[in-house]
Amino acid sequence: MFVKRIRNSTILLAFISVVVAAPFTGYAESLNQAVESGKHLFMTANFNGNGRTCNSCHMAGGTTAGKLPDGSPIPSLNNAAAVFPRYNRRQDKVITLLDQVHNCVAGALQGTPPAYDSAEMVDLISYLSSLSQGKPLNMGGKPE
Ligand code: HEC
C-alpha cells in the first residue's frame, strides 16, 4: 500500500517534470517559419470574431490596395511596418505596429486580439515586416 503510493507519486512527479521541462509554446524556430505562419494567420484566422480575416479588407495578403466592406479603398500594407510608430488621431497617442494589429483584430474582426508577447503576434508582425523588407524606415509616414 505504502510502496504503491510512493510509486504513484514518483510516476506523477516524473510526468510533471517532463511537462514543465518541455512546454509547448508555439513560437516559430526560424524567421521563415514565423513569416509563413503569420501569412497563414493573416489569410485564415478570425480570432473568434465576426468571421472576417485580415485578408477580407487587406486583399492579396496586404500586397495590393485593399477594400473596406462598404467598398471604399484603403492603402496596401507594403510599407506598413516602416511607418510605425505613428501618431493615431482617433486614439490621440503614438501607437506601434503591434497596437495597430491589436486594433484591427478588436475592431475590424471584432475578435480577441492575441497577447502582445504571444506566438501569434510575433508571427503576424514577422509577416507584416516581411512585406516592408528593404523599405526605408519612415516613422509617422504615409501608407503606400
Ligand atoms: C474591416 C476591414 C479590416 C480588416 C478585416 C483588417 N483591417 Fe487592418 N486596417 C483597416 C483600416 C480601415 C485601416 C486604416 C485605418 C486605421 O484603422 O488606422 C487598417 C490599417 C492596418 C494597418 C496599418 C497600415 C498602414 O500602413 O498604416 C495594419 C498593419 C493592419 N491594418 C493590419 C491588419 C491585420 C494584421 C488584420 C488582421 C488581424 C487586419 N488589419 C484586418 C481595416 C481592416
From TrEMBL:
Domain Cytochrome c: 33-132
InterPro entries: Cyt_c-like_dom, Cyt_c-like_dom_sf
Pfam family, one: SoxA-TsdA_cyt-c
SUPFAM superfamilies in the cross-refs: Cytochrome c
Single annotated GO MF: electron transfer activity
Domain of life: Bacteria
UniProt KW keywords: Heme, Iron, Metal-binding, Signal
Signal sequence, start to end: 1-21
Protein name, UniProt field: Cytochrome c, class I
Organism, scientific name: Mariprofundus ferrooxydans PV-1
Lineage: Bacteria, Pseudomonadati, Pseudomonadota, Candidatius Mariprofundia, Mariprofundales
